Amino acid sequence: MNNWLLVLICAVLIITFVFFIWLKEDRKYESSSSVASAYDNWTNDRLLERLWGHHVHLGYYGNPPRSKDFRRAKEDFVHELIRWSGLDKLPRGSRVLDVGCGIGGSARILAIDYGFDVLGISISPEQVKRASELTNQGVSCHFQVMDALDLKLDQNSFDAVWSVEAGPHIPDKQLYADEMLRVLRSGGVLAIADWNERDFYNQKMNIFEKAVMRQLLNQWAHPHFSSISGFRENLMNSKFSKGIVETEDWTMQTLPSWNDSIFEGFRRPQAILGLGVNGFVKGVREIPTILLMNWAFSKGLMRFGVFRISFHT
Ligand SMILES: C[S@@+](CC[C@H](N)C(=O)[O-])C[C@H]1O[C@@H](n2cnc3c(N)ncnc32)[C@H](O)[C@@H]1O
């Protein structure tokens, strides 16, 4: 048999195998424990960390987007959100809570570059362990396992609350908003960034969009998304409301992240290959979801929303 034909048959078999695993073994949201165990697995196999570094969030590429290194874009994202939310106006030593802190990439920037005293919380014990390992002694940044829906923290005890891409995993968006605003002091700074669905009042989802949405939810343990205006209402209507909430849509600024998340596998092949066959299959398994995310964000089914409390009089 012609060698090329053999390679083609193998490639089709591998793709079919991966697609089958992707469709069958989805990671549906069941409870906060299912989110915790999904992140424990993603942390323990080190795939995300080796591939994407210390930040489990999208990068910032400007508008119009400029091509740049993916890891650099992630750091730029943190600085952009700090500037946009007004966090950079707070004095050094201010207390900042990072809700859904991942392995602490943003929390360390907030502590090291801006001198804040940061507490990062995550539902995943393995993330908290890894975040602590990655943080040098003397850096004013600590991590605890805690549920965003039940913050064991005093009312008005933080000067700022930061939360990046944690909301999609949270079933009760009103309670998520309430808890963050409860611990934020009056006049404090809020910086939230999230994946949001478009408002469906005017334009309902068609059949194809519904099928895509099902995968976006079930593959990465998301109960449901809120829209930008819906979550703004949660923040504004909260019993702990701290003022007018402003939003922006950063879909364009963050869009190249999806393709970059895949290209990183080619730029840093050792990151995946070094994890053996299992790591390779796990890495390839994420590609269909990333492609669907890219499609959904570029076609307007999903929007990237950022939220802050207005500091303009
Ligand atoms: C996409 S990651 C973002 C991580 C981090 N913010 C970053 O930017 O690198 C989502 C994070 O939200 C956390 N998370 C999800 N549900 C949570 C909950 N109910 N309470 C606390 N953390 C939660 C996950 O453990 C994970 O750390």
Provide an overview of this structure:
The chain has 313 residues and is of the alpha/beta class. The chain has a single domain, classed as 3-Layer(aba) Sandwich (Rossmann fold). It is built from 14 helices and 7 strands. Strands 3-2-1-4-5-7-6 form a 7-stranded mixed beta sheet, with helices on both faces. Helix 2 packs across helix 6 and helix 8 crosses helix 14. The radius of gyration is 20 Å and the shape is globular. The structure holds S-adenosylmethionine.
Quick description:
The protein is of the alpha/beta class and 313 residues long. The protein has 14 helices and seven strands.
Order of helices and strands: HHHHEHEHEEHEHHEHHHHHE
Largest sheet: 7 strands, mixed
> Over all CA atoms, what is the radius of gyration?
20 Å
The set of bound ligands, ions and cofactors reads: S-adenosylmethionine
CATH architecture label name: 3-Layer(aba) Sandwich
CATH topology: Rossmann fold
Q: Work out the number of β strands.
A: 7
Instruction: Calculate the terminal CA-CA distance, rounded to whole Å.
Output: 75 Å
Average pLDDT across residues?
Answer: 92
Low-confidence stretches are none
Query: Strand share of the residues?
Result: 15-25%
Helix content: 40-55%
Q: What is the total number of structural domains?
A: 1
Question: How would you name the oligomeric state of the polypeptide chains in this document?
Answer: single chain
Strand order of the largest sheet: 3-2-1-4-5-7-6
The CATH class is identified as: Alpha Beta
